[in-house]
Amino acid sequence: MGFREVRLGAARVVFTDRHGGVSEPPFDTANLGLLTDDDPERVRENRQRVGDALGGGAADPERWFRIRQVHGASAVVAQSGPAGPAPDADAAVTAVAGLPLAVLTADCAPVALVAGDAVGAVHAGWRGLAAGVLEAAVDALRRLDDSPVEAVLGPCIHPDRYPFGEAELDLVAAGLGSGVRARTASGEVALDLRAGVRAALTGVGVTRFTDLDVCTASSADHFSFRRDGPTGRQAMIVVLEP
After folding, report:
1. For residues 6 and 209, is the Cβ–Cβ distance under 8 A?
2. Pairing state of beta strands 91-94 and 75-77?
3. Is the pLDDT of residue 242 over 90?
4. Contact partners, residue 213, CB within 8 Å, separation at least 6
5. Which of 89, 112, 136, 188 fits a disulfide with 76 by CB distance 3.0 to 4.6 angstroms?
6. Residues of 224-240 as b/e, b for ≥16 C-beta within 10 angstroms?
7. Tens digits of residue pLDDT in 123-174
8. Domains in the chain: ranges and CATH
9. Residue 40 pLDDT > 90, yes or no?
10. DSSP-assigned states of every residue in 68-85
11. What letter does residue 215 receive in the DSSP assignment?
């Protein structure tokens, strides 16, 4: 399986890519999204392959704490593995060692948050960004551990491939500043999602920030809904190793 890993103290942050799975086009190959139109059994096999490759606290995909991503600003506190339906939220935080948090993306921004002995996983699309999902996640994380927060931004769409409506861009800029305004490679109005993530985090005092600088729409190694339409989902998995 393909993935990229970042270690921050006891925290392990993993970003998967689209390689090494069993799904067929247009979900080829390591689609991890059960809410796509892919064969669920193939998705489960892909998840198990990721778990086998990662080992440690992330080895069992049935223990990944997942959220039903709704493009809002809710952050939930995870105390144990999945029990019942996934909660409607776009961020999860935990101080439980060995409990993996997972979010799925195909252009939206996956953001890992680490503060001492607590971690968070955030799915930040433009609606969630405008609604304040990152601020909510940082607040929830600080309630678990008031150590300085460090953030990692994984693969997401970059402005040169992200044409955007002017009215929606005005909405995002109203909350996060003019730095989110950009242009595509062909000169169209665009949203700089990465700048918005940085602005939101800076606004709540998070200045330790790592950007992996990967554009999903430009990378053949990643799923991109904007580029491909129906497609798969890659994952960010964040876990405090015991």
Report:
1. no
2. parallel
3. no
4. none
5. 89
6. bbebbeebbbbbbbbbb
7. 999 999 999 999 999 999 999 999 999 999 999 999 999 999 999 999 999 9
8. 3-240 (3.60.140.10)
9. yes
10. B--SS--EEE--SS--SS
11. B
